[in-house]
Amino acid sequence: MSLNVDAWTKPDQGALFIVTGASGTGKTTLVKRALSTIPNIQFSVSATTRKIREGEIDGRDYHFLDIPEFERRKDAGELLEWAQVYKNFYGTLKAPVIEALNAGESILLEIDQQGAAQVKAQMPQAISIFILPPTMASLESRLRGRNTDSDEIIARRLKEAQDQIDHCGSFDYLVINDDLESASDQFMSILVAELLKSNRRNSWVQQFVPNKE
Ligand code: 5GP
Known about the structure:
The chain is of the alpha/beta class.
């Protein structure tokens, strides 16, 4: 399937998407594909205290902060949500998300399940999507396939993956990433369908339904 998405999918009222999944489930690839296909959805750049990786750019992939600066922002109430993942802190800056939504833009947060729960509690209209592997065994072999990590690290990652997956039942949508092409189509279908909801498109109702008074 090749999905053709044009600017007519832009709603009056922006949508807030939350995407969560254990590491190794391919969620970053799904998100990158979707954002390059569907116009008018902005990726929310998180703040983190983890070290910058090769190929990453400060301000594009993350806002890389030291721990005191992260804590200052957290204590000042500047974060919509935050969580500790592995040994690092991650958080979503509140102001850019609120400003974009108020301007009618849609936003996508790629965050862990602790953060997803905090956002849903504050903004129940947010749409949450969990990316699952087909089986835990396939996730293990994907993690092993990277061939860089010791058995101990793989066991820890699998445990952390299971801790995320334990919460998948509270998400609005589940996408199983077995075949990347299928999962990508399914993921984009969810985003597009949500953008087309009539309750986000009041200007179209007004345009086509004559005012009888
Ligand atoms: P990585 O360090 O591999 O980029 O991300 C590790 C984990 O942190 C991923 O599960 C990712 O979804 C999560 N994460 C990234 N940004 C945020 C954030 O702003 N908030 C929360 N709660 N988790 C995040």
